[in-house]
Amino acid sequence: MNRLDEILAFNEKFVENREYEPYKTSKFPDKKLVILSCMDTRLSDLLPRAMNLKNGDAKFVKNAGAVVTHPFGSIMRSILVAVYDLGAEEVLVIGHYGCGMGSIDSHKTLGKMKDSGISEDVIDTLQYSGVDLHAWLQRIDSIPDSVRESVKMIKNHPLMPKNLIVHGLVIDPETGKLDLVVNGYGG
Question: How far is 166 from 186, CA to CA, in rounded Å?
Fold first, then answer.
């Protein structure tokens, strides 16, 4: 059985046995939080548990590195929707120690793309079209600094309410310990 078939077979029993009932909640975050975090698999269960959050308490937005790379990209759009349409009143940007984006090498990643069948012509066309793939795949030199930059971009976004509270933290993916980087309350 392949992975998709396994998932669908499990899901059929999950629904049939009404195992979804403990997860019922509304689309509005109960604790009025939106959290931008990394997609690292170690954080899937650890991060909410380390923050005493249960299903329905917060909106979670994830990407590689927990970074806002563009003020009008999908990450910022998701945060704006969480604030204006879903009632989030505070944003937490949470990076983590040992992030894979801290060790990414754009040259090696592009090499892996080529090895998988992406032609040099495609990469050249993107480069000539103004897409700087090396900048796009840029590694994060400092997780705390990256968190600070994302907090700053969210806080200073022209479409964000000026009184929006934005915090920055870094989590240890081994222990769940949170280190405060930016206190959005000003303390």
Answer: 10
- The 10 Å Cβ neighbour count of residue 182 is 19
- Backbone phi, then psi, for 97, in 5-degree steps? -65, 150
> According to CATH, where is 3.40.1050.10 located in the chain?
26-97+141-182
Q: 47 is written with which tokens?
A: 């991060």
161 CB-near residues (< 8 Å, 6+ apart): 83
Q: Write down the pLDDT at residue 157.
A: 97
| Contact by Cβ (8 Å): 171, 47 | yes
Architecture in CATH for domain 26-97+141-182: 3-Layer(aba) Sandwich (3.40)
Q: pLDDT, tens digit, for every residue of 26-61?
A: 999 999 999 999 999 999 999 999 999 999 999 999
Q: Exposed, middle or buried by CB within 10 Å (0-12, 13-18, 19+), for 41?
A: exposed
Q: Is the dihedral of CA 96, 86, 73, 115 positive or negative?
A: positive
